[in-house]
Specification:
This protein has helices at about 35-50, 70-80, 85-100, 120-125, 155-160, 165-175, 180-185, 195-210, 215-225, 230-245, 250-260; strands at about 10-15, 20-25, 55-60, 110, 115, 130, 135-140, 175-180, 190. It is an alpha/beta fold and about 270 residues long. It has 2 domains: about 10-210, 2-enoyl-CoA Hydratase, Chain A, domain 1, CATH 3.90.226.10; about 215-260. The strands form 2 sheets. A 6-stranded mixed β-sheet has the order 1-2-3-4-6-9, sandwiched between helices. A 3-stranded mixed β-sheet has the order 5-7-8. This is Enoyl-CoA hydratase. It comes from Billgrantia endophytica.
């Protein structure tokens, strides 16, 4: 399957070499999500597993903001009048987006500017690498709208990124985490000035896309599935994973390039 010519209806998509760039496309409203954009993003990340032409993904801001979460009028208002079956179908769908991002087999880099709240903060959290501008404001604000902080995997994933106490603070209070806090706590890997954000994220993703992409997929799998393993299980799982990677042509390419004192050119196989 190839996704280079994908023409989504509910978000922007473009290819920069082997890197897919995704942007929500309602900058005048700080890029809120709708039922349709949730579903289309979920399906796109599911398809990435089989995409031969996408080696990495940048989920970028649009305008001066990343994402303001679920649209108040198009999502929140209908949910108030929904029954339990409909509500559970919705919450499972939003969780399926996170699962699709985790299992897409590609490194995902979030480039966060401005508002990054609610489900937007979850999308950033579910990414592998996060860059942000100094003006990024990130909030898991579910309790501020009468909901629990345990949304879309936040109670499982956020403590692993920034620690239990810091995650509890954000998830109970719904307060904004400043870019500086996010950087100090390890939520953001790098702070970048707004005018350079997308270019830096794209350059990083491009470097990954030129690397051993099959091995990157294995790395992503191990990073996620080892959460529930004992140390002994993790070591054995990594032994098996590394043995698989040692059968790839990229492993041989790297050896031959090293022997010839050259830089390896990886093929992803």
């Amino acid at each position: 399957m190839k996704l280079a010519d994908l023409t989504p209806r509910h978000f922007l998509w473009r290819m920069e070499g082997d890197v897919a760039v995704i942007q929500l496309n309602r900058p005048e409203r700080k890029n809120p999500l709708t039922f349709d954009s949730y579903a289309e993003l979920r399906d796109t990340f599911r398809d990435l597993v089989y995409a031969e032409d996408v080696k990495a993904v940048v989920f970028a801001a649009n305008g001066d903001d990343f994402c303001s979460g679920g649209d108040v009028h198009e999502i929140i208002a209908p949910l108030v009048d929904s029954d339990m079956k409909e509500l559970l179908a919705f919450t499972r769908m939003t969780g399926d987006l996170v699962k699709a991002m985790i299992h897409c087999g590609r490194p995902v880099i979030a480039a966060v500017d401005g508002i990054c709240v609610g489900a937007g903060a979850i999308i950033a959290m579910a990414s592998d690498i996060r860059f942000a501008t100094p003006r990024a404001s990130t909030a898991f604000l579910f309790t501020r709208v009468g909901l629990a902080g345990c949304d879309m995997g936040a109670c499982a994933m956020l403590p692993r990124i920034i620690g239990q106490g810091r995650a509890a603070d954000l998830l109970y209070s719904g307060r904004s985490m400043s870019a500086e806090e996010g950087h100090q706590w390890g939520f953001y890997n790098r702070l970048v000035e707004p005018e350079a954000l997308e270019a830096e994220a794209l350059a990083y993703a491009t470097r990954l896309a030129k690397g051993p992409t099959f091995a990157h997929g294995i790395t992503k799998t191990q990073l996620n599935q080892e959460w529930s393993m004992s140390l002994e299980q993790a070591i054995e799982s990594e032994a098996q994973a590394q043995a698989i990677c040692m059968q790839t042509r990229d492993f041989e390419r790297a050896y031959r390039a090293f022997a010839a004192r050259q830089k390896p050119v990886f093929g992803g196989d």
